[in-house]
Amino acid sequence: MGLVSVKNLLEAGFQVVGFERSAYVGGLWHYTDDPETLSVLESTVVNVSIDRDVEEYLESYADHFQLRQHLRLSTAVKRVWRDDAAAKWRLELDAAAPEYFDKVVIATGPHQLPLMPVFTDEQLFTGRLLHSRAFKRADAFRDMHVVIVGLGNTGGDIADDLIGYASSISISHKRGAVIMPRERNGVPATNPLSYRFLILISILDRWVPALAERLFNRKASEVMRNAFGDPDPSWNLWPFPSVRVTNPIISDTLIPNLRSGAVRSVAGIRRFTGPRELELDDGQRLEVDAVICCTGYKNDFKLVEPRYDPAAEPSADWLKAAGSHDRPLPRLYQNVFSLKAPDSLAYVGTAWFVSGAFCLADLASMCIAQVWAGHSALPPQHEMERWAEGQTKRICGLAQRGTVIPASVPAREWLLWADATAGMGVEEHLGWSWTGWRFWWRDRRLHRMAMNGVLAAAIWRLFEGGKRRAWEGAREEVVRVNTIQMKGRLGKEL
């Protein structure tokens, strides 16, 4: 997220310094055995490629755009303060003198602080109790009885890793889940959207939201059944939370491992009852040597001083919502711009919908660059406040129904704003205007791919919009990703 922010700000003419606490640019995609540092597992699979491909991509991205000269690796920012007298931001650095900047983009991502549950009588337990961040190698749990807390992507991956090492593997969970395969009809499940589908979703959400939600849940259930068959009732996967509220799990191995008995599904943990024993909510007692909590992370907005912390004044509705789980909920315009200092403080990685994280970071940082360069204007303060208030109410409503991602934004609405703010021209070319008809007439294949194909980041670099730069290689890239994900696997051409 930080890399693409540096690139887009440089492209808009800013002098940019990117601070990174690690000694590398791969972020969490760079494997490390440091238990205090979040990283992929050595066995992590991303869509259809291994994580090393992602790290290599980030390394090559930094080299291609000559970003390394603008990066300060192994440099941690400890705190960001506003110096009112100087009208600048003061960055307190680890083992270095403070430095001053006119503008600051926080691109630290949502995985900063591990969420660790507190269990009743956990002081009785003498085995290993750890967060998934500290899990690095399965052989460290050889011959152990392991309980994994949390039914999600990470829990499924760790359970699969432990097979062949642990004596027993149990996944403890309190709610059901939809489990989707990594690929469906040759397309990664993590990239299910097309531009046309986003338009359809927005129409259904506006006019028949309840019906739309039922249709999405039914479709998710159908995909799961088609991929894996009917789930065993003993797994307690159903009823599952609405996919509108809680994301499906993406795993090819979790259900096969449950079906084979290599992994057990058990109830939530009620309490620890001894040095190596715990009791479940259904009264069952388990022998256990290690408990691995795959209970997620939360953002830490306290990097910025309290006056400008966007989560410093949480909504009462958020605090009491069952799905908030002690996570901060920021108040930002479009989940990007600070409401207190929109002309100099912004965030990347705080706006999310089901799409590629890199794509969203690219779009958000393009918007920041164009606003700060003076090519686009933000609305009046009262309109930004009203948007943030509406967003807070929407997220709080979802959190009353289940675990929700605090950064979640309405996809279509947010993309329309980003398209206009960054000057990408996508809506004009894919809409019903004369420009859209001309584009369809002159390049029907590309039009079909942009509308119906993979929602690739390159789509937002196709057209000159008078603000951010178009990319001359965008057409080739859109064709390439669609060819790889559709033609190569299905034997059909878009």
TrEMBL record:
Would the keyword tRNA-binding be found if you checked this record's keyword annotation?
A: no
Give the matching InterPro entries.
FAD/NAD-bd_sf, Flavin_mOase-like, FMO-like
Show the GO MF annotations.
Answer: flavin adenine dinucleotide binding; N,N-dimethylaniline monooxygenase activity; NADP binding
Keywords of the record, alphabetical order, are: FAD, Flavoprotein, Oxidoreductase
User: Which organism's genome codes for this protein?
Assistant: Stachybotrys chartarum (strain CBS 109288 / IBT 7711)
One Pfam family, short name:
FMO-like
Highest lineage ranks of the organism? Eukaryota, Fungi, Dikarya, Ascomycota, Pezizomycotina
Q: Which family does it belong to?
A: Belongs to the FMO family.
Transmembrane segment boundaries: none
For the keyword Metal-binding, the answer is no
Entry protein name: FAD/NAD(P)-binding domain-containing protein
